[in-house]
Design goal:
89 residues; alpha+beta
């Protein structure tokens, strides 16, 4: 049984296998997810975060190629997110 849904990116169809909410502290409001995808027989996760600071929205996505090739999990790039949050004050 197939689960999730299919999307197309640059003409390639990918299966979205999961969307998992993550807890993250950033800005005044924040949402974050891990999005699981499958293309052919290769599964991969992408981390997504969007936060608001005042009237500014900042959004990031991250993909760890080394983790995908090893089948490892990886965390949100919090150092990058914190640096961007500091710039927005």
């Amino acid at each position: 049984m197939r689960r999730g849904f299919t999307m197309s990116a640059d003409g390639e169809k990918q299966q979205i296998t999961k969307v998992t909410e993550e807890k993250l502290a950033a800005g005044e409001d924040v949402v974050a997810w891990t999005v699981g995808t499958k293309l052919d027989d290769t599964a991969a996760d992408t981390k997504v975060v969007v936060f608001r600071q005042g009237s500014t929205l900042a959004g990031f996505s991250s993909f760890n190629i080394a983790a995908v090739t090893r089948g490892d999990k990886f965390e949100q790039p919090t150092a990058v997110i914190e640096a961007q949050e500091a710039k927005l004050g």
